[in-house]
Structures are given as C-alpha cells and as structure tokens.
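During the reporting period the student researcher (J.K.) took over the structure-prediction task from the postdoctoral fellow and processed the backlog of single-chain submissions. One of the processed entries is reproduced below for the supervisory committee.
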Amino acid sequence: TAQQGYSRNADYDLIKMAVEESKNEQYDHVPIIGNGDILTHYEARRRMSETGVHSVMVGRGALIKPWVFKEFRDNNTWEPDIMERVEIYRTLAMYMKDHFGDDEMG
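J.K. obtained the following structure tokens:
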C-alpha cells in the first residue's frame, strides 16, 4: 500500500484467509477483490485461482504495462513493438491529462 511505501509484497495469504472466513461467516455474497503486485495476466489469474477472490485490482502494473488488460481479456501475452508502445503511452497520457488536468509543470 502507499502507507507501506510499496516496501512489502501484497499478502495474498491474508487475502485468501479473508475469502475463507467470508464463506464461513455466510458473507460469501460480498465480493472480495485482491490487490497488489499484479503485473501480468497470468499473475492475475493465478492470484484469483489461489485465493478464491472474485477479481483482482491492477494499480501500478497498469501504469507500467497498460496493455495488461488486453492480455487478460485475450488470455495471452502481447509484446507491442516500439511504435505501438509509443501510441499506447501517448493515449494513456492524454487520458490522464483529460482526467487530472494540467499542473504547474504542464
């Protein structure tokens, strides 16, 4: 987490325990979402399978590799070439500017 300064890995054992306890306490209708250290589509699927979470949340991984969502949808690794990467990051920058606006640095 930001509070931890991203200094530790996500604790998926704890997340799995929360999923198991929710089932024991009859709260399995409440979705539990795993979060942290998801950088690839296969990590996302593995974390979902191992813990039983309803889904996973991608944070920093999406900034590093914005096409991770395409990979998850297609269940396949995608290696964009340099021009595709430039276009993806340009689009991401435009979306972020539209959402967050400009600051004193532009």
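The committee noted the following: The first strand starts at residue 33 and ends at 35.
J.K. will present the remaining backlog at the next meeting.
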